[in-house]
Amino acid sequence: MANDRNRMEEEPEIIYIPDDEGNEEEFEVIMKFEVDGSDSKYMMVVPLDSEDDDSDEVYAFRYEEDGDDLKLYMIEDDEEWEIVEETFNTLVAELDGGNEHE
Fold it and tell me: How far apart are CA 83 and CA 30, in angstroms?
């Protein structure tokens, strides 16, 4: 039941990811999902302080939760990336289709 309540909250989930120089950048988590037939979990994030509001820059990471710790992994395998991209696009299409007339 707690998961349902978390999804209903207006507060966005914010994570901090260090860049190449060690500066932490803020990202909003826009979606988390698992891929069918896999134990891997993925999240899609967008930069919070994007200078271009029209930018559709979305980053995908494989992640693992260890208590309160969140470990992010870059997706470097082309096959894995295609699966993640396809799953994300399917979920977005379902959300768009389900919320159009609200």
Answer: 18
Q: What residues pair up with 84 in beta bridges, in sequence order? A: none
Nearest alpha carbon to residue 43 among 53, 58, 55:
58
Which residues make beta-bridge pairs with 29?
13, 45
Q: How many residues in the chain?
A: 102
Structure tokens at 100: 């159009």
Q: Which ranges of the chain have pLDDT less than 70?
A: 1-10, 50-55, 98-102
**Pseudo-torsion of CA 21, 56, 43, 63, nearest 10°?**
-20
For the whole model, what pTM was predicted?
0.74
Q: What is the pLDDT of residues 59-83, one digit of tens each?
A: 999 999 888 888 999 999 999 999 9
